[in-house]
């Protein structure tokens, strides 16, 4: 029988949404309508699902959505023209560019054309510089921020803790590492080239594990210790066609102190974080208008 506490995302997202609703109301009282532009290229099911989730959260929050959609054959020039137009539109507070983009598009170059001030998911180098240098430039990736918000909600203080992050992507691993260090944690980052021995040692001795490798159930009892807090960011499909994380949940819940489920964990918080970023950008617009 499991002894681990399930860290579900719904109460975290609900609390954030309540705060976001109040902020959206205050902004509307000041004559500011928070607006997020979502750019989607093609009909990728994952993109469509995330877009629907973002729209639903926006409706709950009081954020307006502008859809900018292209078919998968869109030219890079057309896509760039749309981004530049949104950058210049004073009514648009934030831009969410859904990825990956088609192969004929230079994704890295296109992402860099977003204004960091409107980059809601931390995909520009300007936004990442803000994360790494602890400045107010841009916004951190929503999923990495969601991990920190989950820890805050459940009262998990990282100061002095050993945090092992499994994965080094710019979307989750690296920014999460910087955020954890900002909270005075001692951080170890593991990746696909880490030796099996070092991977197991760092996983077993951690106080907190954040798994973001993108491989279904790859982390089992040999890579985990006892009484740990485990945040599983992975979204995968297992051999049975069911959604699962990077952690072998059935094994990990037997020894962990706290663990996030998949689905229903960190992923369910990301759209609430996205709305928080949009409202922060809208608040800056309101303040700038008064200067």
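^ Assign residues to that structure.
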């Amino acid at each position: 029988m499991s002894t681990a506490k399930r860290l579900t995302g719904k109460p975290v997202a609900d609390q954030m949404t309540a705060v976001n609703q109040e902020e959206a109301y205050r902004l509307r009282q000041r004559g500011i309508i928070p607006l997020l532009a979502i750019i989607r290229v093609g009909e990728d099911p994952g993109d469509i699902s995330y877009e629907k989730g973002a729209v639903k959260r926006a409706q709950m929050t009081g954020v307006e959505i502008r859809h900018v959609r292209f078919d998968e054959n869109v030219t890079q020039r057309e896509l760039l023209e749309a981004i530049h137009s949104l950058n210049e539109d004073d009514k648009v507070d934030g831009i969410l560019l859904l990825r990956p983009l088609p192969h004929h598009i230079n994704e890295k170059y296109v992402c860099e054309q977003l204004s960091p001030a409107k980059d809601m998911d931390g995909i520009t180098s300007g936004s990442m510089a803000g994360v790494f240098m602890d400045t107010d430039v841009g916004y951190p990736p929503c999923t990495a921020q969601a991990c920190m918000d989950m820890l805050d909600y459940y009262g998990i203080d990282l100061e002095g803790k050993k945090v092992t992050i499994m994965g080094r992507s710019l979307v989750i691993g690296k920014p999460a590492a910087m955020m954890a260090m900002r909270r005075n944690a001692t951080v170890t980052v593991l990746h696909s080239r880490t030796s099996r021995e070092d991977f197991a040692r760092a996983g077993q001795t951690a106080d907190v594990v954040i798994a973001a490798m993108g491989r279904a159930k790859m982390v089992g009892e040999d890579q985990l210790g006892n009484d740990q807090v485990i945040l599983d960011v992975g979204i995968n499909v297992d051999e049975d066609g069911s959604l699962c994380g990077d952690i072998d949940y059935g094994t990990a819940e037997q020894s962990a102190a706290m663990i996030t489920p998949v689905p229903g964990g960190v992923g369910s918080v990301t759209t609430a974080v996205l709305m928080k970023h949009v409202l922060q950008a809208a608040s800056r617009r309101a303040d700038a208008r008064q200067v």
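The first strand starts at residue 5 and ends at 6.
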